[in-house]
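> call design_seq(struct)
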């Protein structure tokens, strides 16, 4: 019974978070499509995306990466061992510290923006670099807003409130779309370079909304904001101790994407945009499945570790990893085979050309190869902090950065594979990191139901072969690059292919008795039976 409860909670809560993140990712995709349609894969869009890279990377490193992982781990253990009142006291101290520290980071970022741009995009010419500096300075306060939003999300997740925190990023996208496009049009109706200032201001509007919409839920669970500068507290010290290695551990993907951008800045105009759009599409299933499962799993394993219940910890983590495989293997197969028609359908409008579709699809296919690794790392890496083995993900991340830089150099400078080589190296790093972390976790937590894990993967690959056949047939006979379908027929064709492919995959997985899928079906049957009664 002890092992079953976490699995039921994980499946139910993951569904809630997954639906919320799906809304957010779709709106994020709409935001990218609008921007790409207005500006195309051009030097102006390269400048905007590069300017957003620094605050966005800091968000992943400090806010939604290290701070979130370290705080949720410590806060959850505090609730388990000392109760809510002590946990809220810690929350006030960390919130005060975050506000002060991130305000300083914002000021420093604005001052050193020219230096940062020269590091992020050394291949930009003077005019392109100057525009990038201006945009970066406008967007830097975003990191303060989103850090506080991530902290609030961590408090709510630890109290088993998942829906609104996951929906919060939807409000970021809504604010940045409506506010950014409106201000951009007001500043330059032709949407030239000056309109990008409006888009930059839109990111601040979105960041404020992402924080504001979570506040009512936070008050409902009992939080009362009281600025507290007593940072010598043991709980604060624990958060900071976890954050140090977590900054490095959580940085692997973003630092590697940053290295890719540096290499891409030496390639032709549009390379930065192709990689960014491809990575965004890969993040759609990563966010819906990988991030959702990780969000629900971290508070659960943190409390299990705090209570010394390693069998429960191990069972929850093993179940989460198998669930990741069930959901990301078909996603990866679909993205690899349907990359071109999906990108054409979503992005090929306005100034985004057919050639941009081909170039972006080339990057997406390689990013998708690493999707399963990315998602599994999202679940595995934070679990090390619950076991107080925080230095291990840090070491793996350092090695991954070295590996990525080396592969980038080989693929682009030596082999001449361009932006596709950059995506390929990122995927290789993700798979390598997952294998290393999995082996390490087996050593410290015991066998993660390894037999069941590999059996599940084998069954999913068999079902995936059928999915690949459906997708290949659709591309070969109807959706290939030679087809000239209008938007509406292409939409129906892509949706039909996805629908048939998903049905075939999950039908085959059910026949092959994939346990996680059968559990989900059993839960749905019970709920439907209860609804009829």
């Amino acid at each position: 019974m002890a092992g079953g409860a976490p699995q039921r909670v994980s499946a139910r809560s993951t569904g809630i978070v997954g639906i919320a993140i799906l809304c957010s990712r779709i709106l994020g995709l709409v935001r990218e499509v609008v921007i790409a349609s207005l500006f195309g894969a051009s030097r102006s869009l390269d400048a905007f995306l590069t300017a957003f890279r620094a605050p966005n990377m800091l968000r992943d490193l400090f806010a939604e990466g290290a701070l979130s992982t370290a705080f949720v781990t410590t806060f959850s253990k505090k609730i388990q061992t000392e109760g809510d009142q002590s946990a809220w006291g810690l929350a006030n101290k960390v919130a005060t510290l975050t506000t002060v520290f991130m305000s300083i980071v914002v000021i420093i970022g604005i001052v050193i923006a020219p230096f940062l741009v020269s590091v992020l995009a050394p291949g930009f010419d003077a005019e392109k670099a100057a525009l990038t500096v201006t945009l970066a300075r406008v967007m830097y306060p975003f990191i303060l807003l989103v850090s506080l939003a991530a902290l609030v999300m961590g408090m709510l997740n630890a109290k088993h409130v998942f829906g609104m925190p996951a929906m919060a990023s939807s409000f970021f996208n809504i604010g940045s779309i409506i506010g950014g496009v409106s201000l951009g049009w007001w500043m330059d109706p032709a949407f030239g370079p000056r309109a990008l200032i409006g888009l930059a201001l839109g990111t601040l509007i979105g960041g404020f909304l992402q924080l504001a919409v979570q506040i009512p839920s936070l008050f409902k669970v009992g939080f009362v904001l009281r600025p507290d500068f007593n940072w010598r507290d043991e709980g604060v010290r624990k958060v900071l101790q976890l954050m140090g290695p977590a900054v490095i551990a959580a940085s692997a993907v973003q630092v590697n994407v940053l290295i890719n951008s540096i290499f891409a800045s030496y390639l032709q105009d549009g390379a930065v945009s192709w990689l960014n759009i491809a990575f965004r599409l890969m993040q759609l299933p990563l966010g819906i499945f990988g991030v959702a499962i990780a969000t629900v799993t971290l508070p659960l394993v943190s409390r299990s570790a705090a209570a010394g219940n390693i069998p429960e910890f191990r069972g929850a983590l093993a179940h989460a990893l198998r669930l990741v495989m069930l959901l990301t293997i078909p996603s990866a197969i679909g993205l690899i085979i349907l990359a071109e028609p999906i990108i054409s359908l979503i992005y090929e409008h306005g100034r985004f050309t057919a050639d941009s579709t081909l170039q972006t699809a080339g990057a997406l296919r390689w990013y998708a190869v690493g999707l399963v690794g990315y998602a599994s790392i999202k679940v595995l890496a934070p679990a090390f902090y619950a076991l107080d083995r925080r230095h291990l993900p840090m070491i793996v991340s350092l090695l991954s950065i070295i590996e990525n830089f080396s592969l980038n150099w080989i693929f682009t400078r030596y082999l001449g594979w361009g932006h596709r080589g950059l995506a390929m190296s990122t995927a290789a790093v993700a798979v390598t990191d997952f294998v290393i972390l999995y082996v390490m976790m087996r050593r410290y937590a015991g066998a993660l139901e390894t037999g069941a894990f590999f059996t599940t993967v084998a069954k999913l690959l068999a079902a995936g072969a059928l999915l690949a056949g459906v997708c290949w047939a659709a591309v070969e006979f109807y959706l290939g690059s030679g087809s000239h379908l209008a938007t509406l027929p292409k939409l129906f064709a892509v949706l039909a292919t996805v629908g048939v492919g998903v049905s075939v995959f999950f039908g085959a997985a059910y026949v092959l008795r994939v346990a996680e899928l059968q559990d989900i079906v059993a839960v749905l049957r019970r709920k439907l039976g209860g609804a009829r009664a």
